[in-house]
């Protein structure tokens, strides 16, 4: 979600902000604009930069891109604020950060469908989590879906023993039955199922589709937007080309992600199947007709209710839709 499905990055042996690649040959290109680009090691978080590497789109558009893998979206935004990262990726659980002015959304990526509230065998409803220990990675889509599920059940975080955990800790804690439930996501849940095959899924993204969508996005640091407008346009052009390639060549996109993240292609394909990828034509139309603004407004309402935002925010202040559509 925020960054979400971060566990694959860990399983791939990647640490936060570890150098992951710079084009195909890891060579600087004379005369190209140098950028740092963050991603998360799952299909959503890595597919566009992986495709850009495969097709040498960075070089095509005059960019010398250093890719860095992170475990969450909020950590990437922190890196942007310290000047260590120019561009990156967030899941829906971290959208409140751009909405609060800490970054800009430059490209809507996919609509997520991999988030779940899970529970130990024998727990069959959200209500049965009352008083029990529930793990959640803060500021992620796992956080988001857990909050939504509690609200739907007439509960709040005060009704459970809410326990903030990073993705790796949560995985081991659930597998060893140290926690009773979790707000989490696939493909990381697949790792848990190897130990707890009969875990129970109490809620998923589709449960709340009439209330809120779960888009994820690529983002830019505020400094990159204000100080590097020409570079920003080139980055968006790369993302646009990669977006259409992903739709038109799904198997090749899976292979590119597998190569970048060092994950088995079958696992990457399963991850990809949980999410809806859209073409630039669809995204342009959804930007123009207000669909994306509606998604972001709905998410903003959720974040206000959850206490992440103090008040509603106009999506135009943080989604650079005009720059997305103009970079054709």
Show the helix and strand layout.
Layout: H1 7-11, E1 18-21, E2 33-40, H2 43-54, H3 57-60, E3 63-70, H4 73-81, E4 87-90, H5 96-99, E5 104-111, E6 115-119, E7 133-136, H6 141-152, E8 161-164, H7 167-175, E9 181-185, H8 188-193, E10 200-204, E11 215-220, H9 222-227, H10 229-248, H11 250-261, H12 265-272, E12 276-277, H13 280-288, H14 291-305, H15 321-326
Parallel strand pairs: 2-3, 7-8, 7-9
Antiparallel strand pairs: 1-3, 4-11, 5-11, 5-12, 6-9, 6-10
Which segments are poorly predicted (pLDDT under 50) over 5 or more consecutive residues? Answer: 1-28
Instruction: Report the structural category.
Output: alpha/beta
Overall geometry comes to globular
How large, in whole angstroms, is the Cα Rg?
A: 19 Å
Question: How many separate helices?
Answer: 15
Q: Report how far the terminal alpha carbons are from each other.
A: 28 Å
In round numbers, the mean pLDDT is 90
Quaternary assembly = single chain
The helix-strand sequence is HEEHHEHEHEEEHEHEHEEHHHHEHHH
Going across the biggest sheet, name each strand in turn. 8-7-9-6-10
Task: Tell me the total number of β-strands.
Answer: 12
Biggest sheet architecture: 5 strands, mixed
């Amino acid at each position: 979600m925020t960054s979400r499905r971060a566990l694959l990055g860990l399983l791939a042996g990647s640490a936060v902000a570890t150098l992951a690649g710079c084009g195909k040959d890891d060579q600087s290109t004379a005369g190209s604009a140098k950028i740092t680009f963050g991603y998360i090691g799952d299909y959503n978080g890595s597919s566009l930069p992986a495709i850009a590497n495969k097709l040498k789109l960075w070089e095509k558009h005059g960019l010398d891109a250093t890719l860095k893998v992170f475990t969450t979206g909020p950590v990437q935004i922190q890196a942007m604020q310290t000047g260590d990262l120019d561009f990156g990726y967030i899941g829906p659980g971290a959208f409140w950060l751009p909405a609060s002015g800490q970054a800009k959304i430059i490209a809507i990526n996919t609509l997520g469908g991999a988030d779940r509230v899970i529970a130990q065998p024998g727990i069959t409803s959200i209500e049965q989590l009352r008083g029990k220990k529930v793990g959640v990675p803060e500021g992620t889509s796992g956080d988001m879906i857990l909050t939504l599920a509690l609200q739907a059940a007439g509960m709040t975080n005060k009704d459970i023993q809410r326990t903030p955990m990073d993705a790796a800790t949560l995985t081991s804690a659930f597998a060893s039955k140290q926690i009773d439930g979790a707000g989490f996501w696939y493909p990381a849940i697949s790792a848990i199922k190897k130990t707890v095959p009969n875990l129970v899924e109490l809620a998923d993204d589709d449960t709340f589709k009439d209330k809120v969508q779960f888009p994820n996005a690529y983002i830019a640091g505020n400094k990159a937007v204000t100080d590097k407008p020409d570079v920003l346009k080139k980055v968006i052009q790369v993302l646009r080309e990669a977006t259409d390639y992903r739709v038109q060549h799904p198997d090749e996109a899976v292979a590119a992600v597998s190569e970048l993240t060092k994950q088995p292609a079958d696992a990457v394909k399963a991850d990809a199947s949980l999410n809806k990828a859209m073409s630039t034509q669809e995204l342009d139309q959804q930007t123009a007709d207000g669909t994306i603004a509606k998604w972001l407004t709905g998410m903003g309402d959720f974040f206000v209710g959850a206490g992440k935002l103090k008040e509603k925010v106009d999506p135009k202040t943080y989604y650079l839709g005009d720059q997305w559509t103009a970079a054709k």
